[in-house]
Fold this protein.
Amino acid sequence: MAGIDWRPTLVTRLRDRFLEQRAAEAHRHLEDDLRMLWREACTGVGLCHYVHVAAGTTIRTPRFGGLRHGDGLVFSTELLPGQEPDDLRAQATRLAHTLGAHGLRVEPLAGRWVRIVLLQSDPLTARVPLPELPLAHGAGRMVLGRGEDGTAITHRLTGPAHLAVQGQNGSGKSVFTYGLLAQLCAAPDVLITGSDITGLVLGRAFDGTAHRDLQATGTRDLLEHAAMLDRLVAEMDHRLDAMPARQDAVTASEWTPLVLVVLEEFPGLLRAAQARDKKLAERITSAVLRLVSEGRKAAFRVLMLAQRFEANAVGGGYARDQFALRLSFRVPADSLAMLHGDDARPLGPAHANAAPGIAYLSGPGHDCTRLRAPYLGGYGEYCDRLARHARRASGETWADWIEVA
Ligand SMILES: Nc1ncnc2c1ncn2[C@@H]1O[C@H](COP(=O)(O)OP(=O)(O)O)[C@@H](O)[C@H]1O
Ligand SMILES: [Mg+2]
């Protein structure tokens, strides 16, 4: 009788069982090791309770739950009474190093249970890619970069904050801006305007798009920059005058877009204007001052870039105070403290040598953190993305409607 050849099936089954058992055993060993290390790490950094009993002192540490199956090292732990996830976060680096990891992330689960995700490498050393698809509207979450715990740090342009970005030459300010503009260029309710004496961030790259009209570039015609800023101020005034009753802020729409005013190397523009005509510099300064102080309600957002955010280089201390969201790429230690306050001082010496693309961020909703900005992959890719996604210019442009003051 020609029966089925059952031997290969049996051998496969036995081998699978064996491999399964081996994997389960390895998982158990790893879990045991981690449980012990976790206890030692928590004790070492003082995240423990000392309980005095008749037989002596015992040490209680956050209970190790279980190691999760799958990729990466992820386990749960139960905080001790009185502990908060932030207590673990405050010691994250020390705990992680004891566990042989680079860093760790603490994610609340339920009750006192939290999940610990061990990070095997520094999230700030790896390049951060940018999602191919741009934002569908201005209220979308724009990626600012990847944080030290490996998560994305985002910001909504509709949030009431102007952005200040400082950093030495070659520290990554422009690349950061390419990333932001590539994300915003397709949104029907966002208009990208501004001044760029380098002509790389704005200008030619935007030719043929709906954004191009209110962009001034180069240093040959500085009057163009002043005139463009004046037109923006006129539109802002118009919006503020036309504000409907019982409203104190303009809601951005396709018809009244959120106007992003990019001021690339702004101190350079002011210097160039000053060298030519003091009056011109004053005109530019006062337009920018009005945009930063009154623009938020009129759906205007300013993104100012400078090598150093010194008060007199950016239109005065009052102008500087209007920027709620602040980013510093590589800067000398005193510049870091100047823009972010004393909290940032301890980081100063290390940040003075930060690699291009690594920035220190502070602002509402963002604790002072470090991040790595997205990298598009070169200037050509920025131009390609704008060509692919940016809103095209239609016959009648929005700028035509703006009455010139
Ligand atoms: N986020 C980043 N990731 C990787 N490399 C970066 C990043 N940002 C900048 N760089 C590198 O640094 C160089 C200078 O950046 P750039 O933005 O032109 O500096 P800045 O405008 O501050 O003078 C870029 O050409 C690029 O090679
Ligand atoms: Mg630059």
The two ends are 101 Å apart (CA to CA).
